[in-house]
Amino acid sequence: MTNNAKVNAWIDEMVKLLNPSEVVWITGDEDQVEELRATAVSTGEMIKLNQEKLPGCYLHRTAPNDVARVEDRTFICTKKKEDAVPMNNWMDPEEMYAKLYKLYDKSYTGKKMYVIPYMMGPVGSPFSKIGIEVTDSIYVVLNMVIMTRVGTRIIEALGTDGDFTKCLHACKDVNPDERYIVQFPEDNTIMSVNSAYGGNVLLGKKCFALRIGSYLGLKEGWMAEHMLILGLENPQGEVKYICAAFPSACGKTNLAMLIPPEAFPGYKVWTVGDDISWLNIGEDGRLWAINPESGFFGVAPGTSTKTNKNALMTTMSNTIFTNVALKDDGTVWWEGLDGDVPEHCIDWKGDEWTPDMGTKAAHPNSRFTAPAAQCPCISSEFEAAGGVPISAIIFGGRREKAAPLCYQAFDWEHGVFVGSTMASETTAAAAGTVGVVRRDPMAMRPFIGYNVGQYFQHWLDMGKKIGNQPKIFHVNWFRKDDEGHFMWPGFGDNLRVLNWIIDRCDGKVDAQETAIGYLPKPEDINVDGLDITPETLNELLSVDKDIWNNEVKSIREFYASLDTYKTIPQELYNQLDALEERLAK
Ligand code: OXD
Ligand code: MN
Fold first, then answer.
1. Dihedral angle at the C-alpha atoms of 536, 540, 542, 546, nearest 10 degrees?
2. Is 377 a catalytic residue?
3. 419 band by pLDDT with thresholds 50, 70 and 90
4. Which of 93, 294, 439, 518 could form a disulfide with 408 if both were Cys (CB 3.0 to 4.6 A apart)?
């Protein structure tokens, strides 16, 4: 398939290790992909859905113990421990390789070995990178075909001498006690074993595009971030691009595909990406973003015509659904989808389900894997080799109380401080307790491929190199009143806040200066057609000093917990002191 000696040597090594019955190179040709679908259906690995209503769509169920990313089983293995901890689990690479090689040993016996050459980023972009994933799972192959650019054209792009990220996956028996998701950044290598759930096994996504990507970004002077990318077009036809980092399952896909409310005629949102951005400094001194992925691996529950019509439309064909419910008519269902709750379906575990059972029909982290090109609002710049120029960066999380609806950082350095202290209530995207507040710097907590203090320093250093810096903002769509109701409608109405953000970038609107940053003046948020009282809006745009004094304490503790190797930049401690002083005034 290739005359790249490095690829061939690695594949030979893998064949010896794994002992497959056959090696199958993924060419990306439709005939081959169709044959794989048919095989997966014949073995029960996938269920063909109603092809009249959902052409090209399939359903897959994972093992009930294998439904989310497993952060406690995810490791960054670097020669020196301090290059990975304290935010990551660490093990000495030699020790980890020995452990893993034992687990992989002959694990493909009697199975085929699929070799997927793939590219993260548009073909032809100087910012794109190549990986090769070896897997024993057709489900992984079919997902990678949607989520990345795969096949012969990537082998051609790699050439005889090109470098690639080595990605090895084996389902084995999905034993959670021997499940490992391991990155070896210094060897440009990823190894995943004993899982078949998306985020753990589609190795181009979190493992490569974020963990290995962030490490490469540090070495090479760019950034890999857990950010959506959208273009906001105004009625004059001008498009401004925004990146936004929210933790997993906090609405990145929804914001990326937002449909403007009626009060904003002539506005449009164009989707460039919904999860990951790779950011490079352009010759013009601006920050330019590409989306390394070519599909959406979105959370299904809660997706409806009301919350995200564009996502729903994207999934109407050629989509793989994972762990959603199967309706009697061969279509799919999940909690929060439009229409009536079905009287009967097969739940995500494959069992009979009726509404009176009181259980969820779809797993809360059930997903759709859909081609980005099918999105009705996909940006014309989606395949642009140079990416799109970023005007604003937004950080945000789920906070019931602390964070106001929106505020702007005073400058880049303060923005890095704001990002580094981000906090959010946990969701079902990762295994573990849901709903507890945890600090999630830049929404990258599970994805930084190296030491977090160095990562903050990299953000500060990049700021110095970007001549024309994007402005940095923080948003919180999830503020609740004392009765526990959401105070802001969210979804399409978030455009009202994006519009203020772009106006700030364009210097068109004033703001109130507060201890935590610049807040919108209530009259500058267009609430036409919205059922919201002036009191609620004022409260959404207020800063509670008691809460923020507690935040200061909690951030101090957080920084201390990260600073075992004294890597947290002094600038960030200075920012914290300055915040404390402003609050005391
Ligand atoms: C994702 C995640 O799948 O962040 O995007 O978990
Ligand atoms: Mn994500």
1. 100
2. no
3. very high
4. 518
Ligand lying closest to the C-alpha of residue 198: 1
The answer to whether the CB of 275 is under 6 A from ligand 1 is yes
Asked if residue 430 has pLDDT above 80, the reply is no
Pocket lining: 429 vs ligand 1, CB cutoff 6 Å: yes
CA gap 51, 33 in Å, rounded: 17
Is 69 a pocket residue for ligand 1 (Cβ < 6 Å)?
A: yes
Question: Which protein residues have a CB closer than 5 Å to ligand 2 (ion)?
Answer: 248, 275
Beta carbons within 8 Å of 207's beta carbon, 6+ residues apart: 167, 181, 183, 190, 192
The DSSP element (H or E) to which 296 belongs, if any, is strand 295-299
The arithmetic mean of pLDDT across residues 122-147, rounded, is 98
Q: What is the mean pLDDT of the chain?
A: 97
Q: Which residue's C-alpha comes closest to atom 2 of ligand 1?
A: 248
Q: How far is the CA of 567 from the centre of ligand 2 (A)?
A: 26
Ligand closest to Cα of 300 equals 1
Enumerate residues 6+ apart whose C-beta is below 8 A from 417.
409, 571, 572, 575, 576, 579
Among protein residues, the one with the nearest Cα to ligand 1's atom 3 is 199
Taking the centre of ligand 1 as the mean of its atom positions, its distance from the CA of residue 143, in whole angstroms, is 14
CA of 248 to the centre of ligand 1 (A): 5
Model pLDDT for residues 402-416, shown as the tens digit of each residue: 899 999 999 999 999
Say how far apart CA 293 and CA 567 lie, in whole Å.
Answer: 31
| Residue 392 and residue 470 in contact, taking contact as beta carbons nearer than 8 Å | yes
Ligand 1 atom at minimum distance from 367 CA = 3
- Cα 536 to averaged position of ligand 2 atoms, centre (Å): 31
Give the β-pairing of 437-439 and 423-425: antiparallel
Residue 524 has pLDDT above 80, yes or no: yes
pLDDT tens, 536-565? Answer: 999 999 999 999 999 999 999 999 999 999
pLDDT exceeds cutoff 80 at 386: yes
High-pLDDT (> 70) share of the chain, % = 100
Q: 394-413: buried (b, 16+ CB within 10 Å) or exposed (e) per residue? A: bbbbbbbebbbbbbbbbebb
- Whether the pLDDT of residue 74 is over 80: the answer is yes
**Which one from 77, 207, 250, 505 is the annotated catalytic residue?**
250
How crowded is residue 359: how many other Cβ atoms within 10 Å of its Cβ?
Answer: 12
Instruction: State if residue 252 touches ligand 1 by the CB under 6 angstroms criterion.
Output: no
**Prediction pTM value:** 0.97
Q: Tell me the two tokens of residue 399.
A: 């906070």
Question: What are the angstrom distances between the C-alpha of 242 and each of 224, 291, 394?
Answer: 15, 12, 7
In angstroms, the CA 487 to CA 503 distance is 23
pLDDT value of residue 11: 98
Q: Which value, in Å, is the radius of gyration of the alpha carbons in the chain? A: 23
Nearest CA to ligand 1 atom 4: 248
Query: Is there an atom of ligand 1 within 6 Å of 298 CB?
Result: no
